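User: Um, any thoughts?
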Amino acid sequence: MKTTGLFTIHEFTIPIEELGNPIYMIPFGDVHKDAPLHSQDKWHEFLEWAEKHKNAYFLGMGDYNDFISTSERKAYDNADFHDSTKNRWSIAADDSTDAFYNDISFMKGRLLGLIEGNHFFKYSSGITSTQKLCERLDCKYLGCMTIIRIRFVWKDHSVVKDLCAHHGKGAAQLLGGSLNNVEKMMAGVEADIFLMGHDHKGPVGFIPRMKLSQSMGHLALVERKIFLGRTGSFLRGYVPGEVSYIADSCLNPANLGVMKIDFIPQRKYRESLSVDMPASI
Protein backbone atom coordinates (compact mmCIF):
# COMPACT_ATOMS: atom_id res chain seq x y z
CA MET A 1 0.00 0.00 0.00
CA LYS A 2 1.19 3.50 -0.82
CA THR A 3 -0.59 6.81 -0.37
CA THR A 4 0.61 10.38 -0.92
CA GLY A 5 3.14 10.24 1.93
CA LEU A 6 2.04 13.71 3.07
CA PHE A 7 2.22 14.51 6.81
CA THR A 8 0.23 17.42 8.27
CA ILE A 9 -0.54 19.15 11.55
CA HIS A 10 -3.80 20.91 12.28
CA GLU A 11 -5.78 22.61 15.05
CA PHE A 12 -9.56 22.45 15.35
CA THR A 13 -11.69 24.29 17.91
CA ILE A 14 -14.89 22.80 19.34
CA PRO A 15 -17.14 25.10 21.37
CA ILE A 16 -18.74 23.61 24.50
CA GLU A 17 -22.41 24.51 24.70
CA GLU A 18 -23.11 22.96 28.09
CA LEU A 19 -20.96 21.16 30.66
CA GLY A 20 -21.81 17.51 31.20
CA ASN A 21 -23.31 16.98 27.75
CA PRO A 22 -21.29 14.63 25.52
CA ILE A 23 -19.56 15.80 22.36
CA TYR A 24 -19.12 13.00 19.84
CA MET A 25 -16.12 12.53 17.57
CA ILE A 26 -16.76 10.04 14.76
CA PRO A 27 -13.88 8.77 12.61
CA PHE A 28 -15.23 7.19 9.41
CA GLY A 29 -13.41 5.62 6.51
CA ASP A 30 -12.89 2.65 4.20
CA VAL A 31 -16.35 3.36 2.81
CA HIS A 32 -15.52 2.13 -0.72
CA LYS A 33 -18.82 3.57 -1.88
CA ASP A 34 -18.50 2.52 -5.54
CA ALA A 35 -17.49 -1.07 -4.75
CA PRO A 36 -19.94 -3.93 -5.46
CA LEU A 37 -19.72 -5.07 -1.81
CA HIS A 38 -20.24 -1.61 -0.30
CA SER A 39 -22.80 -1.84 2.51
CA GLN A 40 -25.24 0.83 1.41
CA ASP A 41 -27.65 0.05 4.25
CA LYS A 42 -25.00 0.50 6.95
CA TRP A 43 -23.64 3.63 5.30
CA HIS A 44 -27.04 5.32 5.09
CA GLU A 45 -27.86 4.22 8.63
CA PHE A 46 -24.70 5.99 9.80
CA LEU A 47 -25.46 9.13 7.75
CA GLU A 48 -29.00 9.31 9.13
CA TRP A 49 -27.71 9.08 12.71
CA ALA A 50 -24.88 11.54 12.12
CA GLU A 51 -27.05 14.24 10.51
CA LYS A 52 -29.41 14.23 13.49
CA HIS A 53 -26.65 14.77 16.07
CA LYS A 54 -25.54 18.40 15.96
CA ASN A 55 -23.07 17.70 18.79
CA ALA A 56 -21.09 15.30 16.57
CA TYR A 57 -17.79 16.08 14.83
CA PHE A 58 -16.18 13.97 12.14
CA LEU A 59 -12.80 12.82 10.84
CA GLY A 60 -12.37 11.13 7.44
CA MET A 61 -9.94 8.18 7.51
CA GLY A 62 -9.51 7.55 3.76
CA ASP A 63 -10.84 5.29 0.98
CA TYR A 64 -14.13 7.13 0.53
CA ASN A 65 -14.88 5.91 -2.98
CA ASP A 66 -13.49 2.74 -4.51
CA PHE A 67 -11.01 4.54 -6.77
CA ILE A 68 -7.92 2.90 -8.21
CA SER A 69 -5.36 1.43 -5.82
CA THR A 70 -1.60 2.01 -5.64
CA SER A 71 -0.70 -0.63 -8.24
CA GLU A 72 -3.53 0.48 -10.53
CA ARG A 73 -2.42 4.13 -10.36
CA LYS A 74 1.08 3.06 -11.35
CA ALA A 75 -0.30 1.20 -14.37
CA TYR A 76 -2.55 4.16 -15.24
CA ASP A 77 0.36 6.63 -15.05
CA ASN A 78 2.54 4.44 -17.27
CA ALA A 79 -0.16 3.73 -19.85
CA ASP A 80 -0.28 5.70 -23.09
CA PHE A 81 -3.98 6.56 -22.99
CA HIS A 82 -5.59 9.01 -25.38
CA ASP A 83 -6.53 12.38 -23.88
CA SER A 84 -10.20 11.54 -24.46
CA THR A 85 -9.82 8.35 -22.40
CA LYS A 86 -8.16 10.23 -19.53
CA ASN A 87 -10.91 12.84 -19.73
CA ARG A 88 -13.58 10.14 -19.34
CA TRP A 89 -11.76 8.82 -16.23
CA SER A 90 -11.66 12.37 -14.81
CA ILE A 91 -15.38 12.85 -15.43
CA ALA A 92 -16.14 9.52 -13.73
CA ALA A 93 -13.98 10.57 -10.74
CA ASP A 94 -15.84 13.90 -10.56
CA ASP A 95 -19.18 12.11 -10.57
CA SER A 96 -18.12 9.78 -7.74
CA THR A 97 -16.69 12.67 -5.72
CA ASP A 98 -19.88 14.71 -6.22
CA ALA A 99 -22.00 11.79 -5.00
CA PHE A 100 -19.87 11.39 -1.89
CA TYR A 101 -19.99 15.12 -1.22
CA ASN A 102 -23.78 14.99 -1.37
CA ASP A 103 -23.73 12.23 1.26
CA ILE A 104 -21.62 14.14 3.80
CA SER A 105 -22.25 17.81 2.97
CA PHE A 106 -24.10 18.21 6.29
CA MET A 107 -20.72 17.73 8.03
CA LYS A 108 -19.47 21.15 6.85
CA GLY A 109 -18.09 23.10 9.78
CA ARG A 110 -17.89 19.97 11.93
CA LEU A 111 -15.33 18.08 9.88
CA LEU A 112 -11.80 18.01 11.34
CA GLY A 113 -10.52 17.08 7.88
CA LEU A 114 -10.05 14.20 5.47
CA ILE A 115 -7.13 11.77 5.53
CA GLU A 116 -5.94 10.33 2.22
CA GLY A 117 -6.27 6.57 1.79
CA ASN A 118 -4.67 4.30 -0.77
CA HIS A 119 -7.74 4.31 -3.05
CA PHE A 120 -7.99 7.70 -4.75
CA PHE A 121 -7.91 9.25 -8.20
CA LYS A 122 -5.07 11.58 -9.15
CA TYR A 123 -5.92 14.22 -11.74
CA SER A 124 -3.52 15.46 -14.41
CA SER A 125 -3.21 18.68 -12.37
CA GLY A 126 -1.58 16.64 -9.59
CA ILE A 127 -4.38 16.98 -7.03
CA THR A 128 -6.33 13.98 -5.76
CA SER A 129 -10.04 13.27 -5.59
CA THR A 130 -9.80 13.66 -1.80
CA GLN A 131 -8.32 17.15 -2.18
CA LYS A 132 -11.23 18.08 -4.45
CA LEU A 133 -13.63 16.77 -1.82
CA CYS A 134 -11.90 18.88 0.85
CA GLU A 135 -12.25 22.00 -1.32
CA ARG A 136 -15.99 21.46 -1.62
CA LEU A 137 -16.36 20.75 2.10
CA ASP A 138 -14.12 23.68 3.08
CA CYS A 139 -12.09 21.44 5.39
CA LYS A 140 -8.43 20.57 5.91
CA TYR A 141 -6.72 18.06 3.61
CA LEU A 142 -4.75 15.96 6.09
CA GLY A 143 -2.50 13.82 3.86
CA CYS A 144 -1.90 10.20 4.85
CA MET A 145 -0.92 11.03 8.45
CA THR A 146 -1.81 13.91 10.72
CA ILE A 147 -1.55 15.19 14.27
CA ILE A 148 -4.53 17.33 15.24
CA ARG A 149 -4.88 19.47 18.35
CA ILE A 150 -8.56 19.52 19.30
CA ARG A 151 -9.25 22.56 21.47
CA PHE A 152 -12.42 22.52 23.56
CA VAL A 153 -13.55 26.01 24.60
CA TRP A 154 -16.07 26.93 27.30
CA LYS A 155 -16.39 30.62 28.17
CA ASP A 156 -12.83 31.74 29.03
CA HIS A 157 -11.60 28.18 29.70
CA SER A 158 -10.09 25.71 27.26
CA VAL A 159 -8.55 22.26 27.26
CA VAL A 160 -6.87 20.32 24.46
CA LYS A 161 -6.74 16.71 23.29
CA ASP A 162 -4.13 15.72 20.70
CA LEU A 163 -5.04 13.15 18.06
CA CYS A 164 -2.65 11.22 15.79
CA ALA A 165 -4.21 9.47 12.81
CA HIS A 166 -2.90 7.51 9.83
CA HIS A 167 -4.92 5.83 7.10
CA GLY A 168 -3.35 2.59 8.29
CA LYS A 169 -0.87 -0.12 7.54
CA GLY A 170 -0.59 -3.83 8.14
CA ALA A 171 -2.99 -6.67 7.49
CA ALA A 172 -3.16 -8.53 10.81
CA GLN A 173 -5.78 -11.28 10.85
CA LEU A 174 -6.44 -11.06 14.60
CA LEU A 175 -7.64 -8.06 16.59
CA GLY A 176 -4.54 -7.97 18.79
CA GLY A 177 -2.20 -7.67 15.83
CA SER A 178 -4.41 -5.00 14.27
CA LEU A 179 -4.28 -2.84 17.40
CA ASN A 180 -0.54 -3.48 17.86
CA ASN A 181 0.16 -1.48 14.70
CA VAL A 182 -1.72 1.46 16.20
CA GLU A 183 0.13 1.16 19.49
CA LYS A 184 3.46 1.35 17.65
CA MET A 185 2.67 4.97 16.73
CA MET A 186 2.99 5.83 20.42
CA ALA A 187 6.75 5.28 20.20
CA GLY A 188 7.21 8.40 18.10
CA VAL A 189 4.26 10.67 18.87
CA GLU A 190 2.88 12.21 22.07
CA ALA A 191 -0.93 12.28 21.83
CA ASP A 192 -4.15 11.34 23.61
CA ILE A 193 -5.80 9.48 20.72
CA PHE A 194 -4.24 7.21 18.07
CA LEU A 195 -6.28 6.04 15.09
CA MET A 196 -5.80 3.88 12.00
CA GLY A 197 -8.15 2.56 9.35
CA HIS A 198 -7.30 0.41 6.31
CA ASP A 199 -7.61 -3.14 7.66
CA HIS A 200 -11.42 -2.87 8.08
CA LYS A 201 -11.29 -4.02 11.69
CA GLY A 202 -12.59 -2.05 14.65
CA PRO A 203 -10.81 -2.93 17.90
CA VAL A 204 -10.39 -0.19 20.50
CA GLY A 205 -8.46 0.00 23.73
CA PHE A 206 -7.15 2.29 26.43
CA ILE A 207 -3.62 2.45 27.80
CA PRO A 208 -3.24 4.26 31.16
CA ARG A 209 -0.16 6.42 31.72
CA MET A 210 0.89 7.80 35.12
CA LYS A 211 2.73 11.03 35.83
CA LEU A 212 3.46 13.25 38.80
CA SER A 213 1.74 16.61 39.16
CA GLN A 214 2.56 19.51 41.47
CA SER A 215 -0.31 21.68 42.68
CA MET A 216 -0.29 24.22 45.54
CA GLY A 217 2.79 22.60 47.04
CA HIS A 218 1.36 19.08 46.98
CA LEU A 219 2.63 16.17 44.89
CA ALA A 220 -0.06 14.05 43.25
CA LEU A 221 -0.18 11.03 40.97
CA VAL A 222 -2.22 11.74 37.83
CA GLU A 223 -3.47 9.16 35.34
CA ARG A 224 -3.63 9.98 31.66
CA LYS A 225 -5.80 7.75 29.49
CA ILE A 226 -4.53 7.03 25.94
CA PHE A 227 -7.12 5.85 23.42
CA LEU A 228 -6.21 3.49 20.53
CA GLY A 229 -8.51 2.39 17.74
CA ARG A 230 -9.01 1.01 14.26
CA THR A 231 -11.90 2.73 12.58
CA GLY A 232 -13.93 0.01 10.83
CA SER A 233 -15.31 -0.12 7.31
CA PHE A 234 -18.40 -0.12 5.13
CA LEU A 235 -17.15 -2.86 2.77
CA ARG A 236 -18.68 -6.28 3.30
CA GLY A 237 -16.50 -9.37 3.01
CA TYR A 238 -19.08 -12.09 2.48
CA VAL A 239 -22.10 -11.75 0.19
CA PRO A 240 -23.71 -14.89 -1.33
CA GLY A 241 -22.91 -15.12 -5.04
CA GLU A 242 -20.30 -12.33 -4.93
CA VAL A 243 -16.52 -12.57 -5.28
CA SER A 244 -14.22 -10.96 -2.68
CA TYR A 245 -10.61 -11.20 -1.58
CA ILE A 246 -11.92 -11.76 1.95
CA ALA A 247 -13.63 -14.99 0.93
CA ASP A 248 -10.69 -15.97 -1.28
CA SER A 249 -8.29 -15.72 1.68
CA CYS A 250 -10.77 -17.10 4.26
CA LEU A 251 -10.43 -13.95 6.37
CA ASN A 252 -12.79 -12.78 9.09
CA PRO A 253 -15.76 -10.63 8.02
CA ALA A 254 -15.20 -6.87 8.07
CA ASN A 255 -16.37 -4.81 11.05
CA LEU A 256 -19.05 -2.64 9.47
CA GLY A 257 -19.76 0.83 10.81
CA VAL A 258 -17.84 3.39 12.88
CA MET A 259 -16.53 3.97 16.37
CA LYS A 260 -17.78 6.82 18.53
CA ILE A 261 -15.50 8.68 20.93
CA ASP A 262 -17.40 10.58 23.61
CA PHE A 263 -15.88 13.74 25.07
CA ILE A 264 -17.52 14.73 28.35
CA PRO A 265 -16.65 18.33 29.33
CA GLN A 266 -16.88 19.11 33.03
CA ARG A 267 -15.56 21.55 35.61
CA LYS A 268 -15.60 20.69 39.28
CA TYR A 269 -15.57 23.35 42.01
CA ARG A 270 -12.35 25.43 41.90
CA GLU A 271 -10.87 23.14 39.23
CA SER A 272 -10.02 23.94 35.63
CA LEU A 273 -11.98 22.61 32.67
CA SER A 274 -11.47 18.91 31.90
CA VAL A 275 -12.72 16.53 29.21
CA ASP A 276 -13.26 12.86 30.01
CA MET A 277 -12.95 10.43 27.13
CA PRO A 278 -14.92 7.19 27.17
CA ALA A 279 -15.53 5.43 23.83
CA SER A 280 -17.94 3.02 22.23
CA ILE A 281 -18.31 1.07 19.00
Summary: The radius of gyration is 20 Å.
